[in-house]
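Sorry, explain these tokens?

___
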Amino acid sequence: MHTLARALADQLHPGAAPRDVTVSFGARRQAPVEYRARSRGGPVTVFAQALHATLYGLPTDNKTLPAALDALLQTAHTATAPEQQTALLRQVAEQLRNAAEIIQRYQYRAQWNRYPDDIAKQLHDAHGQAQQIAQTLDRVASAFSNPPGVDTAPNAYRHHGPSTAAPAPPLTPTTGRHR
């Protein structure tokens, strides 16, 4: 598998580290219309694993997701099935709950060790924000298992270039208070 990843990375630049290389697949203009709107890409190491499993008839276990956030990020690049996307969002939510617990422990430690008050306050705020994001991800994850019907707006979400849309507004606490 590592040999495959190295060979794919060498296509970009001889000696390139596989962890630094991504791949992208798309269809030619002459391809049947059902393929043209599809593309896929991600880390070369993930594609090498998939190719290795396919070539040698090894099982591809799509049900288990990594726990580490960096590995989840790698998985997010290649998760195309609705069930994978839902599971991925739920796993990220679970990891955010774990992160919130870690943050809370450091908040208590900052209070116990008498760090400046603003340190404990910032950790308290971060704890609440992490919990809020986890709850939001739990609420929206199932939408990816049941995607809405085909978008009838002309190419509304097919743009792959830099976004010119305004950034999303910041999250506000559910209590209605602004920090």
About this structure: The mean pLDDT is 76. The first strand starts at residue 22 and ends at 26.
